[in-house]
Amino acid sequence: MSRLTVNDQPIVYKLDPDTPLLWALRDASNLTGTKYGCGTGQCGACTVDIDGHAVRSCRVPIGSIEGTYVTTIEGLSRERNHPVQLAFIAEAVPQCGFCIPGMVMAAAALLARNSDPSEDLIRAQITNLCRCGVYPRVVEAIQRAGRAMRGEEVIPAGPRPGIDPADSARLVPALVPPPAR
């Protein structure tokens, strides 16, 4: 048994201690925002925060992190209004979206330690892979999130989760469907 705190909830995993954290989160806890990408720790799609550090969860056996605090994308902000999440939306970072949860988690961990990282530091710390090639927008979004965290900028929030699509269209005009033909 491995005892962890996941998204502020104490969890006991009755799994083999060699089970990768990724599979404990996805299969046992149904936290599917953490993605399986490569399984070798290279792509970063599975990045979570463990005690303040961005970690590739596919490479971490749950038995090795007993007693730690794990935050997944689902636990970063219940209302999806963490400055990194808002900045990624405002800077139009997501395309296919598969790599985004891991990038958001890596960026949030970086900004928790340094809310004013240089472009070079961002590029050195955010090594997640993205097939869509959104890297310049990722840098801009992380810098913008840092400004928001320092109180230098306010990033407008988009529609809240669970909002009616018609209400979303009023709040975000780009969501208005095209006229019928």
The count of β-strands is 5
Category by helix and strand content = alpha+beta
Element-by-element helix/strand order = EEHEEEHHHHHH
Return the CATH architecture of the largest domain. Answer: Roll
Radius of gyration, rounded?
17 Å
Strand order of the largest sheet: 2-1-5-3-4
User: What global shape is seen?
Assistant: globular
Summarize the structure.
This protein has 181 residues and is of the alpha+beta class. It has helices at 21-28, 73-76, 83-90, 100-113, 119-125, 135-149, 165-171, and strands at 2-6, 9-13, 47-50, 53-56, 69-71.
Explain this structure to me?
Residues 153-181 are annotated as: Disordered. It holds the Pfam family Fer2. It contains 7 helices and 5 strands, in the order ββαβββαααααα. With 181 residues, the protein is of the alpha+beta class. It has 2 domains: 2-71, Beta-grasp domain (Ubiquitin-like (UB roll)), CATH 3.10.20; 83-150, DNA polymerase, domain 1 (Orthogonal Bundle). It has a 5-stranded mixed β-sheet, sandwiched between helices. A hairpin with a 2-residue loop joins strand 3 (47-50) and strand 4. The radius of gyration is 17 Å and the shape is globular.
